[in-house]
From TrEMBL:
SUPFAM superfamilies: Glyceraldehyde-3-phosphate dehydrogenase-like, C-terminal domain (SSF55347), NAD(P)-binding Rossmann-fold domains (SSF51735). Residues 16-139 form the Gfo/Idh/MocA-like oxidoreductase N-terminal domain. InterPro entries: Gfo/Idh/MocA-like_OxRdtase_N, Gfo/Idh/MocA_oxidrdct_glycsds, GFO_IDH_MocA-like_dom, NAD(P)-bd_dom_sf. The keyword Iron-sulfur does not apply. This is Gfo/Idh/MocA family oxidoreductase. Residues 154-298 form the GFO/IDH/MocA-like oxidoreductase domain. Keywords: Oxidoreductase. The keyword Acetylation does not apply. It comes from Streptomyces durmitorensis.
Amino acid sequence: MRETEHEAETGKRPLGVGMVGYSFMGAAHSQGWRTVGRVFDLPLRPVLSAVCGRDGAAVRAAADRLGWAAAETDWRALVARDDVDIIDICTPGDSHAEIAIAALDAGKHVLCEKPLANTVEEAEAMAEAAERARARGQVAMVGFNYRRVPALALARQMIADGRLGTLRHVRLTYLQDWLVDPGFPLTWRLRKDRAGSGALGDLGAHIVDLAQFLAGEPVAGVSALTETFVRERPLLDGVSSGLTGEGSTATGQVTVDDAAVFTGRFPSGALASFEATRFAAGRKNALRLELNGSNGSLAFDLERLNELSFHDHTEPATSSGFRRILVTEPGHPYLEAWWPPGHGLGYEHTFVHQAHDLLHAIATGEQPEPSFAAGLSVQRVLAAVEESAAKNSVYTLVAATPVTV
Ligand code: SOE
């Protein structure tokens, strides 16, 4: 992207961003790109060059609403633009691999929403393309934004510093309830051909990535159960979903999981448990975790994301217990750029931090995390969960006992 006089004076090199997709994640990423330069002092200034979507009128309206200078209806034209240096992929998983590999091969940096892909094979091809691009000085990152909650970045630092001692338990749940109503229509997230999987890839991907991020090691093995509670749902509009004729009121098959429950083991011997569901009535976006070690425990609840609970087991039992760390000090991750202590951040700030970390990596030539290789590692855990659940092999039936419990 060409530099203006002003940019030459401020020393902030402009970097053009091109975003594919403009729904929930597109809006969240746009917030990150618009805000990052106003909060963090970086040698690069992101320019929202163009946003892309198939529906011309809708994407032009989105460009206006979200602050993008132009609109494209073909992602290939977006990748070809000279004023785009970063391709930001905010589409359903079935298009991640094609767009990311083309963008990397065209010399662009890439940010790709999670999960990295719909299959391990796609994720492997993406990781290989990212490796090739790395040699050319390009970076690629996956949008596991919860790593950038300051409280969770602090948790990782504390664990790495040994504050928990040897990890024994890694326990995460991610609970939502937007599918409890059987009348909720068959959207793309409920179709395997579009989303790859259901709660497992959407919510489970986050907690698998966080487990590995916090533990500092990959999950080595899993045993799993998955379930689809509501197997048939009304079609949004037959034509738009491509499944039936104009204005159909027919139903369609749900082809993904509604919930996944699985255990895991780390190479260090620590045990993990995971639960991802869209049927936890009353839970809106409840990502919760607790890690227990030989010297203490950490606990976190996304619905109270400025807080981290810490128990130091090395303290005398008569005065120890979980205490709340309010993660708003300038010495906490990312917080120096924001408000004075106690003023708190929210969900959207994780996308500002994500934009910061990507731009910082481009400016310094470092590899940002999570890399596509980290995204592939998560994809392999998701595939193992699906394989274990399909085999049902590790699920041992308990002999029936004629008793009222
Ligand atoms: C699912 O509804 C969802 O939007 C996920 O796709 C996001 O990754 C998560 O951050 C919020 O919930």
